[in-house]
Amino acid sequence: MDDCDLDLIDELCSSFCTPRTSQKTNENNTPSVNESLSLSNRKRTSTCNPLDSSKIKKACLSDVSNRSIVDEYDEISTLDESALQMLCEEWEPRSQFPTLLTRVADLLEKYRNIQSFHNWQKKCLDLPARRKNQNLIYTLPTSGGKTLVAEIMMLNCLLHRRLDAIFILPFVAVVQEKVRSLQPFADELDFHLEEYAASKGRYPPIKRRMKRSLYVCTIEKANSLINSLIENNRMAEIGIVVVDELHMIGEGQRGAILESLLTKIRLLKPQPQIVGMSATLANIDDLLKFLDAQFYEERFRPVELEEYVKVNDIVYKIDRNKANHNDELFEHRRLDFKYTKQNLLNDPDRVVGLISEVIPNDSCLVFCPSKINCENVARLIISFMPEKLLEDNREKRSILLETLVEVNEGDLCDTLKAAIPYGVAYHHSGLTGDERQLIEEAFLDGILTCLTCTSTLSTGVNLPAKRVILRSPYVGSQFLTFAQYKQMSGRAGRTGQSQTGECFVIAHERDMKQLREMLFTMAENNTGCDSHLATNNSYAIKQLLLNAISLRICSTYESLLNLLQKTLLALQADRLHVNLESLLDECLQYLIDANIIRVKEIEQISDDNHVEKVKKLVYETTKLGKATVEGSVDLGLATSVYNHLATSLIDMNLENPLHLLYITIPFDLPNMTIGFRQLVDRMQEMKIEEKLVFKLMDIDDTFLHKKAVGLPAQQKVSKETMLRFYVAVMLYDLFKNKSFYDVAKFWDQPRGGIQNLFSQVASFATSIFYFSKSYDEFWPYQQLLPIFIQRLTFCTSLEILPLMEIPGIKRGRALQLIRAGYHTLRSLAKAQPDDLMKVVLNLPLRTAQILVKHSKRLLCEQAEDLRDQAAALVENIE
């Protein structure tokens, strides 16, 4: 980068180094100024003329937005001379930049309450790797502000470098939360925000003419997205790939997928910048070599973390600064809660006592080892709570309860009904997505003060609390790892609301040896981010090789071996006792035997300048292999998927959605007990045309009735087929507009589990759609699945499907709008909020305004999508 070619980040840091008009003032009515990044120490050469004060004033007053001229001038005048010169160097050639920079800074303050950067953030943004768009890895404790740095880098890529960005996050819920968080920035700064999670995402994405795109993806969807971009020679459109929770590269098959996609990116020319971040990273030297990255580490935490271990009635404090490692735990205090004998019997670990020390004035998270334990602890807490707590936030908690009942179409579990008035709730995967979102928002707003939760919350959305309590040093039946502990304890401390955050681990004497080892020995261990490419029968290596051959990244044995030598596995091969050549031979043979790839002999001119043709062996994909890559189908299931689709075409029943729903049920379902009694009850309610699907599957009434009453019966279909059909009938209830609560209650399944199943089916249906594109005979799937996937995504009927795309709209509200005559986005976009309030029951004005606004935005996006697709059709046509 030329010294005089500065970027958005320089200017943004400069704008945050100065007082803003909305900042609080001190006792002398003087704006408080956070410590600024010293730009004067950075050496720069410039051809710009020396600036006099009149020119500076003219430059600074030439373009202002949403601020008074005096405010803009005062703000600029507080910077030193070199900073002013730098601002003018950047602003003079691009007059729109002052407005853009002000808007970015204002948006960060408006939506994130961010008025300045921390010093470490400024340092990180000023690193040579960031300035030269080189690969970068940085670590910081949870809640330290890691994500903001990455978002600023992506904004710089989108707005200054004019390239697209990919943001990879670990879970679907986190992707959805991040999309909601970034949407105001996309609206205001005019870039596309595209979600790639579950069934959402287009391959390849629409090629944009004007705006740039930020793709927010799960790991699996990012892999598919990158494959599609490579295949269509469009990776040059990507300027940066950001990986949150980079430590997941060492966690099972998802880590192996992450390693694979990063390896493919590393082979590209030119390569987009890779930025990885995490609160905990081991094997950092291996990761730096793997990504050829610079490293930045900071121990900064906006709120100091105090760590404790409670055994019986003694609280020990963890001291990580002691030179004598034999005394890392020292007695801090003895608990003396006024428990009755009955209290001690109900709560022998004194969990409620520890919680009561902070709520209701502060907040508390209680991590529990299982979902059922979450709910039990929530009930335990409220059994101890005094009735006077019911007066705190009574009105807001009543509204929260009403909203939860509304999104659940009239239902709510008894535990939440009883706990929320006390400011308590539970949070785990058994909740629906709407329930989780409402509970998270209520906790952030202080309406709820205590959440009992599973470990998944520690890697999900950021919900900081004054005190974090680990109910047990176990996650499920497995002992807590150091990485899990760091993630959970990292939630302790709320910036701006407390000076310290506290983490308590509740343990028993029998756990102490293992707990000490985890807290101190494992903390210094340099392993953890180990490659998982070679685990699980080298499945991930086979997938990586297939991807590379299909995308024409590699075609020869030598190039494939070179590919493996670029992986993290290659750097750790000796320690993991892996022989790359043997692995390559084994995996290639597997792919050939499975009819996924084939070997082809070609002739080419020799390299020694002799006009002589030599024979060469190359690898290429079969049609099945190509379909496997296109559909992101599990290698081991590719043949089964093909056979399943081919067989299902013969007698496909389209009189109702049940058969198509069965076709799209994934093969790798979680273990569950088939409820034959419920299946029989549901079958008896079905119409004749619906029962025909049972006959198609060779499932007869006699077999089901015998199983329902516990009699032995010989089934004609496999256990796997029976389970998939059982799930199809279960989810078919949702197609009939039954609520998640009704379906979960009837089938005796957790409502969140039902929703997760539906999401898995939508995702697998998307895979089938892209898989089928490789086969002409599968044209019916290509016609049927797009609209079916939409129904699966929004879990609704065709009638209200168009309205379900509006962010935040629920099925009940959509039905109200349909009844009021608003059947399309266009009709809603043309509506007046006042008119909506008159015809839709209990619709507040603010909600009506938001519905109209979102409808207009979506309509404009759809129109722009069509224009971009039309432009792509005629591109390069003379």
From TrEMBL:
Reactions listed under catalytic activity: ATP + H2O = ADP + phosphate + H(+)
Hydrolase listed as a keyword: yes
PANTHER family listed in its UniProt record: DNA POLYMERASE THETA, PUTATIVE (AFU_ORTHOLOGUE AFUA_1G05260)-RELATED, HELICASE POLQ-LIKE
UniProt keywords, alphabetically: ATP-binding, DNA damage, DNA repair, Helicase, Hydrolase, Nucleotide-binding, Nucleus
Name this polypeptide is given: Helicase POLQ-like
Localization, UniProt: Nucleus
PROSITE patterns cross-referenced by the UniProt entry: HELICASE_ATP_BIND_1, HELICASE_CTER
Gene Ontology CC annotation, any one: nucleus
Domain Helicase C-terminal residue range list: 376-539
Region (Disordered): 20-46
Chain ranges of the Helicase ATP-binding domain: 127-299
Organism: Rotaria socialis
One Gene Ontology MF term: nucleic acid binding
GO BP terms in the entry: DNA repair
Highest rank taxon of the organism: Eukaryota
Keyword Membrane annotated: no
Principal localisation: nucleus
